[in-house]
Amino acid sequence: MFNSLSDRLQDTFERLRGKGRLTEADINVAMREIRMALLEADVNYRVVKEFVARCKEKCLTAEVLSSLSPAQNVVKVVLDELTVLLGSTDSRLTLAQNRTPNVIMLVGLQGSGKTTAAAKLAYLLKGQGHSPLLAACDTHRPAAADQLETLGGEIGVPVFRGDGKDAVAVASGSIKEAVDRLCDIVIVDTAGRLQIDEEMMEEAVAIKQAVRPDQILMVVDAMTGQDIVNVVTEFANRVDFDGVIMSKLDGDARGGGALSVREVTGKPIKFVSMGEKPDSLEVFHPDRMAKRILGMGDVVGIIEQAQKVANEQQVADAERMLREGFTMDDLLSQMQQIRKMGGLQKLAGMIPGMERAMAQMPQAASDEQLTRIESIIRSMTKEERARPKIINGQRRRRIATGSGRSVQEVNQLIKQWDEMNKMMGKMKGMMQPGAAGKKNRRAMQQMMRNMGGGGRFPF
Amino acid sequence: MGLLDSLKVGLKRSREAINEIFYMGGEVDEDFWEDLEDTLVMGDMGAELALRVTDDLRDRAARENLTRAEQIRDALAQRLAAEFPEAARDPFTDVPSCVLFVGINGAGKTTTVGKLAGRAREAGLSCVIGGADTFRAAAIEQLQVWGERAGVEVITRERGADPASVCYDVVEAAEKRAVDLVLIDTAGRLHTSSDLMRELAKVVGVTRKRSSAPVSVVLVIDATTGQNGLNQAREFNDALELDGLIVTKLDGTAKGGIALAISSQLGLPIYRIGVGESLDDLQTFDALDFTRALVGEGM
């Protein structure tokens, strides 16, 4: 059983990769796999059918079949088609210039994450120098307004609740409130509704007419299955939205629904929502998403994430490490950095082939292992962390007891630290001026071999 | 509205889709089988299961000489119904009982707890609600509104309190008062977040240990969920050893095929299905009724 779309496609293409020349039958096998994989990723059945047909047509051209690396060309065709299907990067919110306040309205099914998305959007806009106001127009779900008020309080954005009964009146009232409070953007959070619920759909239309939003965003759960097509079609017909926020993409759902939404409604996906924290609303990048789906890794994403996390202090630390060697504290802070970036699992998911490699090695690094190492380091004294050389047998026993791990595990960690420290020393040698040349290249290659082969890293 | 009727309304769209195939003609041909497979896939049943089911049915049709679409429809309903395991006991009527509701964010846990409390009161059972969702903003307030509507006491603590200790308090209070049914709402979480799953395992562990009444852990799943639902259920099952499922939001156009996939692959019974907004729309699950309504039999 394949775990994900990337795994599945990778497997297919690995089989194709071995071939010098592809026949139509080979392409058919590949397309069948792609079809099944996309279906497993919840891409709508009709969308899959069209997509696969388009890809097949392109793959059957002489250019692809008779090229030197047909398999790679098939990959390219599928990737390009997927990127086209996902649309362009368009996360700008088009707001009327000469209108104050601007209005953004959120719609969607129950439980898709509208209220959370409203708070995240407010946080984002606030960071851009706007002064948003949240309007609690979900008058149906018990305590929905309380939820919005709490979230608003956490990010320092005012919330307008009105009388909490008539959603349309709350929406209109929020505009007046925004003028009084000098807020320049109103974010209207509405009640979740099924697309077949006539009364509720009418309410959404009534709110729309009352506040004439600049942008209507539909919040769509990334885990939604085949039905997503019916949902977005009906919402597009009735309320007509301008773009989509995909929520819950921090789970392991492949978000095949993103493809369906684009293909069926033509509306752009503007943001992806990746977690519980208010800053986890991210710009949607179709090319990255397509690559990620195809198992080609989201390398740009990793770099961006690293940049976000790294700060000047850490740059200074890196220099000190090279100068004075690597301490346990450095190891700890590196692990915390991995955590900040979303944990090993998330990072691994962005590196090509990494997810598969990790899945195949049961004793390979896991997030749990990180936690264990962290607990061992935390059981060391300041002095021990700075100079791990002083950790003798007695200290090892104490650290093991303190962290609830075995002495062997402590030994292993110290050994790993030792290896890393040696590596640091080598790097230092290489970086010294005037030492370039063959000898260093060899040393570098040796180091790479060490890294790839024997030594298992603590993370 | 009777059970069968509302099921039918809820599943109308899927039935229409399947009917399209069945009314294409009396004799079945290759296209029929392909369309059947596609329809099942469209119902979120999962490509793998859909293939298996159609292959099985094909054999059976050949063996029993079923050549007409209606015969196959009946065979299909039975075939699908056989995929659901039977529930050994109903944790909401076999009292005393303590039920924990788990699931991802937005699946409908809190609403389900509220409705079940209302049903329990109607049936004359004494009931308390435990609010162990101390994470989501206003989850406690939402539960309290439901508690008031149902006339059931809600035991909880302030936001941010340790959910395991809330459960301990709830079970303790319930036992002191000899309450029939304890319903505990937990915070929604994604199955991929290992820290939160561990927290939940602790909550379940504490409750199982403390409660003298049998404890059931029920996964609440949204019918609109796609194939990721299987991952969700698998992770929750691995971490918590689930007892069964409740499928919500079957009143939309979603076909809820994922429920079949989860139920059959993990061997979990479905205790209730939600087919509407009102209290009575949370119904007991009958496999054959469900699949009959799905394939449009007896219309």
Secondary-structure element series of chain B: HHHHHEHEHEHEHEHEHEEH
How much of the sequence lies in strands of chain A comes to 5-15%
User: Which strand order spans the largest sheet of chain A, edge to edge or round the barrel?
Assistant: 3-2-4-1-5-6-7-8
- Tell me the overall shape of chain B: elongated
3D structure, described in words:
The complex is a heterodimer of chains A (459) and B (299). Chain A has 459 residues and is an alpha/beta fold. Chain A has three domains: 5-86, SRP54, nucleotide-binding domain (Four Helix Bundle (Hemerythrin (Met), subunit A), Up-down Bundle), CATH 1.20.120.140; 102-287, Rossmann fold; 303-452, 434 Repressor (Amino-terminal Domain). Chain A contains 22 helices and eight strands. Chain A has an eight-stranded mixed β-sheet, with helices on both faces. Residues 1-5, 433-438 and 448-459 of chain A have low confidence and may be disordered. Chain B has 299 residues and is α/β, with parallel strands linked by helices. Chain B has two domains: 3-81, Four Helix Bundle (Hemerythrin (Met), subunit A); 97-285, 3-Layer(aba) Sandwich (Rossmann fold), CATH 3.40.50. Chain B contains twelve helices and eight strands. Chain B has an eight-stranded mixed β-sheet with strand order 3-2-4-1-5-6-7-8, sandwiched between helices. The radius of gyration of chain B is 20 Å and the shape is elongated. The two termini of chain B are 16 Å apart. Classes of the chains: A alpha/beta (459), B alpha/beta (299). Chain A: Belongs to the GTP-binding SRP family. SRP54 subfamily. Chain A: Part of the signal recognition particle protein translocation system, which is composed of SRP and FtsY. Chain A: Its main location: cytoplasm.
